[in-house]
Model the fold of this input.
Amino acid sequence: MRALRKTAPAPGLELCEIPEPVVGYGEVKIRVQRAGLCGTDVHLYNWDGGAPGSLTPPQTLGHEFCGQIVEVGPGVVEGYGPDELHVGQRVSVEGHIVCGRCRNCRAGRRHMCIRTIGIGVNRDGGFADYVVVPARNVWVQPEEIDVELGALFDPLGNAVHSCQPLELTGQDVLITGAGPIGIMCVALAKHAGARNIVITDMQADRLELARRAGADAAVDVTTDSLASVMTALDIREGFDAGLEMSGAPGGLSTLIDSCTHGATISLLGLPKGPFPVEWGKVITSMLTIKGIYGREMFDTWYLATYMMQTSARLRETVRSIITHRFAPEEWEAAFQVAASGSAGKVIIDWER
Ligand SMILES: NC(=O)c1ccc[n+]([C@@H]2O[C@H](COP(=O)([O-])OP(=O)(O)OC[C@H]3O[C@@H](n4cnc5c(N)ncnc54)[C@H](O)[C@@H]3O)[C@@H](O)[C@H]2O)c1
Ligand SMILES: [Zn+2]
Ligand SMILES: [Zn+2]
Done:
């Protein structure tokens, strides 16, 4: 089978021909149909940033994917009941594998596991014709969610998880960073009935995607004034809810400056390193800042699926974030586009 792999601890990847993986105890084998590229994959490709430390080559990349179960391993409850797995099901996969033994795992807070490892980062992932994953990481998708939407559930889950601590209905919402996840937050805030949704970035193409996804204003922080946008939208006292989706220090300072007293800010964007924060403003504005990692297992998956299942508009808005689709053999072009920072979501079609 084809597999896009890191073959040496250095920049680059290789599209290899390797044997199909063998399904082990408690695992299922999936025929991958679509897979999404994200910033982590670009870092692993470049062999820079924080990601390389945890990957031991040779290893297949890819943690955002959707496909069909082709084999159910020993020890997995196989069948056609509501919580059972069988060959032919269309599935997305939770990319975080948890230990099951730490205090958080034992208390049912699995997304807070202290020993989380990642599919496509610490073990072979979904940039391949086939992948083997633990059955408990599989999420069966309903009819309404096709393979392309299914491949977006990892980043969509990041966006949903970021929205979970926030009140959005009737609120003024500020999102910093119009990458795929920031734009998904726009779509979710719209779905939740926010009063105004404002997003910031400095990439014109991404700001345009965000406008089309329902942003009331998409602000280029290098040229536009957020204060005048707030005046135009009649946002008098600041934003009620904030979502940091850029990883840039400027994104958080914009939120701290522009949110009203008592606002809650979800922090998903991963900064490159430590940076100064105006803590005095956080204190006197009585802000709540909540770090968000991954997806709640599996509350976030239920929320994401049920919202997508019941809203054709949300499905089409989320789909519109995909701007590029490539065959596995075109992987170099796919990585170039993903690294450019101006595209939406980039998908590799493993059926091509
Ligand atoms: N916590 C988690 O579990 C988790 C999971 C996935 C991704 N992430 C992080 O979340 C962030 C969003 O992911 P993505 O794939 O959408 O990212 P992305 O890197 O594609 O998008 C980030 C966007 O922020 C913009 N930006 C940079 N500086 C800015 C500033 N000062 N103000 C406003 N915008 C600015 C960039 O132009 C870019 O469009 C990234 O930082 C990523 O590393 C975190
Ligand atoms: Zn990712
Ligand atoms: Zn654990």
User: Anything to note?
Assistant: The mean pLDDT is 97. The CA atoms of residues 65 and 224 lie 37 Å apart. The radius of gyration is 20 Å. DSSP finds twelve helices and 18 strands in the chain.
